[in-house]
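Below is how a single chain appears once it has passed through the pipeline. First comes the sequence as given, then the structure the pipeline wrote out for it. We keep one example in the README because the format questions we get most often are answered faster by looking than by reading.
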Amino acid sequence: MSDFDFESKIIDIPDYPEPGVVFKDITPLFDDADALRAVIDAISDHFAGHGITKVVGAEARGFLVGVPVAYRLGCGFAPARKPGKLPREVYSQTYSLEYGTDELQIHRDALAPGDRVLIVDDLIATGGTAVATARLVEQSGAEVAGFGFILELSFLNPRDVVAEEYDQEVFTLVKVS
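Resulting structure:
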């Protein structure tokens, strides 16, 4: 694990997007070259040697993390997008949010049986997006090999949600209790 102080680059924004919420702004991790390198290296190094053949990132900040991780691991990247954003045939997965539902899609030809897929995103909060993304991977006939995130809101117990369906590792750089 990196000895970089990731938390020092995360800024708390009180009362955003609504009163009582403390938003964790990770964009300073992206605008500092050393911090960005440390994020990508830490996630990539952790999963090196796991036989990852594809990385999948959920819209939109999962793209920012996923593409450079895929590059470092020497594999391809597939985006999991909101409905209507992908031009070819897709697999779709609806999932629950705190107030309603959402949906992710992936191209039907983005993954193949035999692919070992690392799911990455900037944040794991409730675990719903991670599980929905994993279900898309399975619809494609590929195998979920692990989950990697910058930030985990552990007080929401996302690992429990993921563990209900997947026994693959959930790796995070920063946990917020």
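The chain has a mean pLDDT of 96.

See the next section for the split statistics.
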